[in-house]
Amino acid sequence: MSLTPEIRDEYAQLIDDVRDARRAYYTDDAPTISDAAYDALYRRLEEVEALYPELVANDSPTQEVGGEASSAFAPVTHRARMYSLEDVFSDEELRAWLTKAQENSQAISGKNPTWLTELKIDGLAVNLLYRNGALVRAATRGDGTTGEDVTHNVRTIATIPQRLSGQNHPEEIEIRGEVFISSADFKALNEKIVAEGKNPFANPRNAAAGSLRQKDAAVTAQRPLSMYVHGIGSSQGLGIETQSEVYELLASWGFR
């Protein structure tokens, strides 16, 4: 297909619109459009880039992971990169992803993959760094490489162990998951905020992100935050091969 000036203009506008929406959602915790509207913009951006690969810019939102780290918090470089999830919107796309995953598994191990399905928790991705079993730092995902130091705020969340249970912990390990607010707690929190004459949060995800990214940890401590852990980043000598083993290990260390 020929590349017209109209396509170039549309592509530039899509990049601006998606970038603005991502900044509002991930960095400002104040979304300006619905999730469905954002998905439509992002999918159209992907479609244009697939049709006209010569257009793809290095700074396109499709080449980035999540949001960017805020200058309000000290930057933290993750030991291992944090990736975002890939969305699919149809049975056809899901089948294509399954085929690709099977081919990759065969190429790497010579085996077909086994599958484990998980709930998607819509919260704020957080990376916990434990050293000799003690929590020493917590950071948001940020752009996947550099996040925000939210250690003091994370220490107020009751479901996050300050020290891992058991023994023989790795000298250093990154444990990852989502900080979130349940639907029931979100409803109660918004009712309280409205009663105080303040504007309510738009959705549970932004309520969790806004609560965690407070400059005053005392404010965070008053919010009903929880964390669902689901993965391990940088670590040494664990010998784990499956996601089920990850969950078993995390449970043995005191995560719920």
TrEMBL record:
This is DNA ligase. CDD domains: LIGANc. Pfam families: DNA_ligase_aden. Residues 6-256 form the NAD-dependent DNA ligase N-terminal domain. Keywords: DNA damage, DNA repair, Ligase. PROSITE patterns: DNA_LIGASE_N1. The lineage of its organism: Bacteria, Bacillati, Actinomycetota, Actinomycetes, Micrococcales. The keyword S-adenosyl-L-methionine does not apply. One of its GO terms (molecular function) is DNA ligase (NAD+) activity. GO terms for biological process: DNA repair. The keyword Translocase does not apply. One of its GO terms (cellular component) is cytosol. Gene3D superfamilies: DNA ligase/mRNA capping enzyme, Helix hairpin bin.
